[in-house]
Amino acid sequence: MIGPLIKGLTITFKYIFKKKFTVQYPEERRELPPRAKWLHILQRHEDGKERCVACMLCASACPTEAIYIVGEENDLENPVSHGERYAKVWDLDLGRCMFCGYCVEACPEEALAMTDEYELAVPTRKDLVLHKEDLLVDPGTPPVRTWLGFYRREPIGAAPVKRPLEVHVEFEEYLRRKGPEEGHE
After folding, report:
1. pLDDT attached to residue 151
2. In order of start, what are the domains of the chain with their CATH numbers?
3. Rg of the chain (C-alpha set)
């Protein structure tokens, strides 16, 4: 009975004379690690158009089903994004989100990113549902590279892929190649 009490007091006395480490939050903020994942943002291209093409990969990768997307065909005269479609509705329920980053890793257009903004407290659960207008960055905000997979060689925070269109065109040509049945090898 006395043994655990003495053990606890020795730990207390060991730390009582050490220098205290206290951050005076919110005046002081600790620097977060470079891969800290908190608040989501929807990025834009350099010309101001949205990066999201409503492919729904982020919503399907989300283990908690916190993302809701409604895609719509892009107007050719006044396009919203560079793709054939755009996200008419893009909602994120932060009450369900577990901040795993699967949605960011799944996005082929690097439209979705996670920032180091961690002050997410709101008075009601209804306020935890963020809409597309809340998540879109201002036009002119430089996009950041978001894919942080194991094989990624670029530094964190580097510029995103500049020419994803060339990759898509090359893949389309690969899919439309002539097969052996058409007289080609």
Report:
1. 44
2. 35-178 (3.30.70.3270)
3. 23
